[in-house]
Design goal:
This protein is an alpha+beta fold and 415 residues long. It folds into 3 domains: 165 residues, Beta Polymerase, domain 2, CATH 3.30.460; 90 residues, Orthogonal Bundle (Hydrophobic Seed Protein); 94 residues, no CATH class. It contains 21 helices and 13 strands. A hairpin with a 2-residue loop joins β4 and β5. The longest helix has 20 residues. The radius of gyration is 27 Å and the shape is elongated. The termini are far apart.
Length: 415
Amino acid sequence: MNDISDYIQTELIKTPFNLYYLITKYIESNNNIKVAFVGGYLRDLLISKFHKKSFSKPIDIDLVIEGSSISLAKFLKKNVVNVDLCLIKEFNLYNTVEININEYKIDIASARKEIYSAPGLNPKVTSSTIEDDLKRRDFTINSIAFEISTRKVYDLYGGISDIKSKKLNLLHSKSISDDPSRLIRCAKYASRLDFNISNNSLKQSQETVKQWPWKSSETDQKMIYPPALGIRIRMELAEICKHDNLNNVISLIHKWEIISILNENIKVDKRFLRGLNWIKKLNGNYMLYLLKDSEDLETASQRFLLNNSEIKILEDYSNIKKILKTNPKKLNHFSPSSWTELIEDRNLNDETVKLLICDGSPYWRNLFKWLFIYKFIKSKKDGETLKKEGWDPGQEMGKEIKRLRYLEIDKLNRN
């Protein structure tokens, strides 16, 4: 293990802002309090060592301390030099702190134990040791720690061996029932790192999903969906959309037969994945795309804490989709202004139109043109011009402006 310890220390010394040196200084001035690097940054260093895979510079760095996270954070902020920005965000619920130094994010957590009373609920937290803190992690590859003062490598669950074999192993038998959002994270790591989920972890994932809706031990009732879990899944998906390939992640979740954690009505095929790719290109709401074909919209809305605007978008999508199926012969002869009228008279949100485009209907081009062309075309005469021509302000003037605008839109068909 000495060669791994030497390698890790050599790499950690390279962390920006003299971070390693500053933490060492803090430890020495606080009775050799235990502080360790942990999590994804350490994991990626070891992947680089064993698989010669290169990662971009670390953006997120995780630390755990057997003491006060805020005390260490304040020390770092006071002593870091030559930076444009250094902000501290404190989260009292879990005794964690986030420091933003320029474009870097450093998460410091006071070592803790977590107890989950029911799947997806926020855990009850008590202060503890680094060893206990590692027990609450999600996967073995993320449960490795490097204690700075002793240069000790903590690998209690075989994470280094799993990194070598490119295997994703859940940490314990209740990993998924404690936090089902780890299903999404598992697919994210499998896609990002090119790792394979172990058979035992896959079995645990599938069995936990089949038991939904889960029982709450506090009330002994079925929970439609714990609110905290809906938030965590949306956060995971947001990170995936930002840094990973959402298509790959959704394909893996489907392949693993756990797609119902999102929406059991999703039919993952080429058309669906093409639309998922387009929703990103259009900067659309990927969460609504994943939920658009839910048979029970009310339950889906509750599960993922959709707001009223998002619910209306899905309702409008469903209604317009039915209209588009009713009279294809008529729609095939719609002019650009007719499409504009269909969309605007119903006051459809742009997000609704994006969903219809990504759905791959025969009319997606017409909807696409409205979104990027027709909606921006104006009448050549505004209200002031019409007033000068003798029109009185009111409903009739509005109809005339709309008629003139539609003429301009339909000109596009003739050009």
